[in-house]
Amino acid sequence: MIRYVAAEVHVDAPPEAAFALITDWPRHREWMFMTDAWQVAPGKIAAYTGLRPFGFLDPMTITRFEPPHVVEVRHTGTLVRGLGAVRVTPRGDGCRVIWAERLEVPRWALPGWPLAHAVSVLLARRSLRRLGALLRQ
């Protein structure tokens, strides 16, 4: 079953600066909640979310990369599958950052989706606010 998660934030920084930080994979730990990310090959990244050993690996293929506005990925792991995108658009003296996911949720996990969705949105908003705070420094 397909389910969606999205969050957005206004950032007081130019789109180029926001996009550069978003796609600096090793710096994800500075703003993305409990997540380390790294490039594993050209066009491929991976992220580990959680506190080892309690967490999950999220391998991704970059399917679209258009600096400084769009990066799209396909989640190819066993736990997280689907499409993700971050879009950065100029807005006033800064930019708007939208993080959206189109996830393939297995039927067995559907009863827990309302809670997973709420937590995902909360953590995405928190992460995007931390991104904005880093860019203001």
UniProtKB/TrEMBL annotation:
Gene3D superfamilies: 3.30.530.20. CDD domains: SRPBCC. It holds the Pfam family Polyketide_cyc2. It comes from the Bacteria. This is Polyketide cyclase. It comes from Nonomuraea longicatena.
